[in-house]
Design brief:
With 294 residues, the chain is α/β, with parallel strands linked by helices. The protein has one domain. It is built from seven helices and 14 strands. Strands 1, 3, 4, 5, 6, 7, 8, 11, 12 and 13 form a ten-stranded mixed sheet that branches. The protein has a four-stranded mixed sheet with strand order 2-14-9-10. β12 and β13 form a beta hairpin. α2 packs across α4 and α3 runs parallel beside α5. The chain is globular and about 60 Å long.
Length: 294
C-alpha cells in the first residue's frame, strides 16, 4: 500500500493526453454467453503483497468462512444470479476446449492518504484518512488465458481521526470494504454496478491502453512524493483515467500497462488458481504527461 502524507495539496498541475494508433490490432469475436466465475484475487507479483495490497491480501488469506476466503464468499453472493456484459455469472466448472469465458475480480493495489489538517472546517478531528482500493473485473478465455475484456473498479472510503489510524483499525476498514456492506460501499458491488453497463468488445472494436505516465522534475518537486510513492501515484493515476475514459466515452480500455503488465502479460493470483493472462496489443496507445503550470 502507498502512504501519502501531506499537510498541503499540490497546485498548478495539468494533465496532457497524447494518443497514437498502434500498427497492431487484436481481433476477438464474442457472442452472447454466460461467464464462469474464476474467483477473486490480485494482479501483479503476490510476493510484493506487503507493499502493494497488505490489508486486502490479509483479508483474502482469512479463510474463516467455511474454510474459504471471506472475500471470495461475499463476492460470490454479490454476483450470484446477476446479469453482466450480456450474460449471467455461473458457478460451475467450465468444460475444457469450449473456449468458455471466465470472470475474476482482482485487486491492483491499495492506497492510504493521510492528510493532517489541523484547521479543518469539516471536523474537530485533526487527520483525514482516505482509503482506496483499485482493481478490475477481468473477462478471459479459460482455455487460452487471453483477455477478452476488463472493467476498471475503484472505491474509496474517507474517515477522520486524531492522528494516523492504527493498523487494527485500518485492517477493519479494508475488511469491511471487501466482505460486507457495513460502510455502504464495497468492492464487489462497485464492480457489479460497472459491469452491468459494460459490453464485451466485438472484433470490430478498437481498444485503447494507457502505456505511459510521465512527469518532469518540477512536477515531482511540487507533489513532494518519494520515488517509490511517485511510482505508485502514476499507477493509480493511469487506472483513474482508464476508468474515466471508459465510463465517459465508451472507449474499450485494456488494463493499464503502467504497473503490473510485463511483456503483454498479467500475472494474477486468484482463489481458483494462479493465471498468467495474455493481453491483446492496443489499437490506440495513450500517454499521460503531468506538467506544472506557470
Amino acid at each position: 500500500m502507498s502512504y501519502f502524507i501531506n499537510s498541503t495539496h499540490p497546485r498548478g498541475l495539468s494533465f496532457y493526453i497524447i494518443s497514437f494508433l498502434s500498427l497492431l490490432a487484436f481481433s476477438v469475436s464474442v457472442s452472447a454467453q454466460d461467464f464462469h466465475w474464476a474467483g477473486v484475487g490480485f494482479m501483479g507479483d503476490y510476493a510484493k503483497r506487503d507493499t502493494l495490497y497488505p490489508y486486502s491480501s490479509r483479508v483474502f488469506d482469512d479463510h474463516s468462512c467455511d474454510n474459504t476466503s471471506c472475500f471470495e464468499v461475499f463476492s460470490r453472493t454479490v454476483f450470484k444470479g446477476q446479469k453482466i456484459a450480456g450474460g449471467k455469472v455461473k458457478f460451475t466448472q467450465a468444460e475444457p476446449g469450449t473456449n468458455a469465458i471466465g470472470v475474476a475480480l482482482a485487486i491492483t493495489y491499495e492506497r492510504l492518504i493521510v492528510d493532517e489538517t489541523v484547521n479543518s472546517h469539516y471536523t474537530n478531528k485533526n487527520t483525514l484518512n482516505s482509503i482506496a482500493i483499485f482493481g478490475s473485473l477481468l473477462f478471459m478465455d479459460l482455455d487460452s488465458n487471453k483477455l477478452v475484456g476488463a472493467v476498471p473498479t475503484y472505491i474509496r472510503y474517507d474517515t477522520a481521526s486524531n492522528g494516523k489510524i492504527s493498523d487494527k483499525e485500518m485492517y477493519g476498514i479494508v475488511k469491511a470494504m471487501l466482505v460486507s456492506n457495513e460502510l455502504k460501499i464495497n468492492f464487489a458491488s462497485d464492480a457489479l454496478s460497472r459491469a452491468k453497463k459494460y459490453s464485451l468488445p466485438s472484433d470490430k472494436v478498437r481498444r485503447a491502453q494507457i502505456v505511459e505516465v510521465s512527469s518532469s522534475t518540477k512536477v515531482n518537486d511540487v507533489i513532494g512524493y518519494s520515488k517509490d510513492a511517485m511510482n505508485y501515484f502514476t499507477m493509480q493515476l493511469a487506472q483513474v483515467f482508464e476508468g474515466v475514459l471508459m465510463t465517459e466515452t465508451g472507449i474499450q480500455m485494456l488494463p493499464s500497462s503502467v504497473g503490473h503488465i510485463v511483456g503483454g502479460k498479467l500475472k494474477t493470483r486468484l482463489s481458483s488458481g494462479n493465471r498468467v493472462i495474455e493481453l491483446p496489443e492496443p489499437d490506440v496507445a495513450i500517454k499521460l504527461n503531468l506538467a506544472k503550470l506557470g
